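HUMAN: Please help interpret these C-alpha cells:
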Amino acid sequence: MFENVVQGIFSATFLAAILRVATPILLPSLAALISDKAGVIHIGLEGTMLAAAFTGVALSAYAQQWFGPETGRMVGPWLGLVGGVAIGVLMALLLGFLHLRLKADLILAGIALNILGSAGTVAIMFELTGDRGSTSRLASLTMPFITLPTFIRDIPLIGGFIYDVFNNQSVMTWIAFIAVFVVWFMLYRTPFGLHLRATGENMAAAQSVGIRAIRTRYYALMLSGALAAMGGIHMSMGYLNMFQRDMTAGRGFIALATPLLGGGNPYGTAAASLMFGFFDAFAIRIGTLQIPSQVPQMIPYVATVMALVIYALQTRQTQRFRALRATGVGSARTWRTLQSLSVLHVLLAMFAVIGVILSVGLFAAPNGFGGLAVAYPWGAVISLASLMLIGVNWPFIARLERILEQPILSAAVTISSLTIYLALFLLLFFSPIAALLGGLALSLLLWAALGGLGLIVGEKLKLHVST
C-alpha cells in the first residue's frame, strides 16, 4: 500500500488534487495580500470563509424551492455564489467600520469576526436543519465543473497529461488562478492599485497628495472579503457538496502567512498556496495508510510552521546579504551567486526537517509503513541522515559569508545534499546506480547554474563586516 501511495504522488491525478485543494487557500491568500498592501490586514478571513460557505449552501438549496426544481438547479449555484460573496463583502465592511470608523483594534475586531462566523453559522444551521454538525439534510448544489475539449488529449507528448490535470476542475479553481493575474494587474497596472499600495506604505503621505486613504482601505477590505468568500464557497460547493461545522479548518489563518512567504506579490502568493496545496493533498493521500488519523491531519500545519521558519531565516539572510554587499567588495555576479546558494542551503536544511518528521511517523505508527521490521530501521536511517543534512548545511545558514570564505566546502555540502534528495526521487524510476549517478549529474548542473563554479575559480573575497 505504501508503494501505491508513493506512485500516486507522481501522477496527473495528484497534480489535479493539488489544484483542487489549493483553491481554498489561494483565494483567501489573495484576499490577505490585497488588504495587507492597503495596510489593514484582514484578520477575519476564517470567519468570512465560514459565513460565505454556509450562505452559498443555504441559498443553493432553497433556490430549488423558490424557482422550482429545474430552474433552481440552474440558478442555485450562482445564487449561492452571489449571496456568499455579498456576505463576505458585508463582513469586510463591518471590520472596516469597527476599525476605520470606531477605531477598534484591528486584531480584536478580526478575532470577533472569526468567532461570529464560527458560532453564527452553527446557530443558523441548527435553526434550519436541526443539526449542529452539517447541512446534510439540505439538498444543496455544487458549482459547475469545467470539461475540457477532447482534442487536447491528441496533442503530442503533453496533451494527455494536461487533460488529466485540468479536466473536470471546479469553476472556482479556474476563477482562483485567473484571479492571480487579475490581482497582479490591479495592483501594479491601475491607478487604484497605485493608490492602494501608497496607502499601505504611508497613509499620511498618501493623503497629502490627495488620495482618499480611508475610502481606499474600505475598497481593499471589500475586495478582500469577496475573494475570501469565494474560497469558502469552494469548500462547501466545490471541495465538498455541503457545509460542515468549522470546515475551513484554519485555512483562513494559513492564508494570512502565505503572502509573506510569496514575497508580497500575487505570483509568489500563488506559488506558496500551491506548496500548501501539495502538503494538503499529500496528507489526504497518506491518510489511506494504516496510521493514526492525527498524523496526516497535522501535515498542513507543520508545513505552515516550516514555511514561517523558512521566511524568518530568509529574511535574516537577506539583511545579512545587504550588509555584506554594502562593503563594495565583489562583483554583482558574485553577490547573485551568494544569494542563490544561501537560499539553496536553507531549502536543503528544511527538506531534511521533513525527513525528521517522517521518521517520527515511522516510529509512532509502524503498522502503516510495513510493520516494525520495516518502519524502525528506515526510521533510524532517515532520522540520522536528516539530522546530518541539517548539521552540514546549518553553518552556511548561521553565517552567510562562509559560502564565500569556504566555497569548496559549501560546494561539497550542496552537491552531496542535492544528490541524496534527487537520487531518492529518481530511485522511483531507475536502478539505484542510475539514480545515484543521475542525482549527482543534476546536482552538479544546478550548482554550476547558480554560479557555484565561479566562486571556486574566482578571487577569494576578504570581508570585514561587523556582526
User: Anything to note?
Assistant: Residues 69-101 form the longest helix (33 residues). Residues 320 and 400 are 7 Å apart (CA to CA).
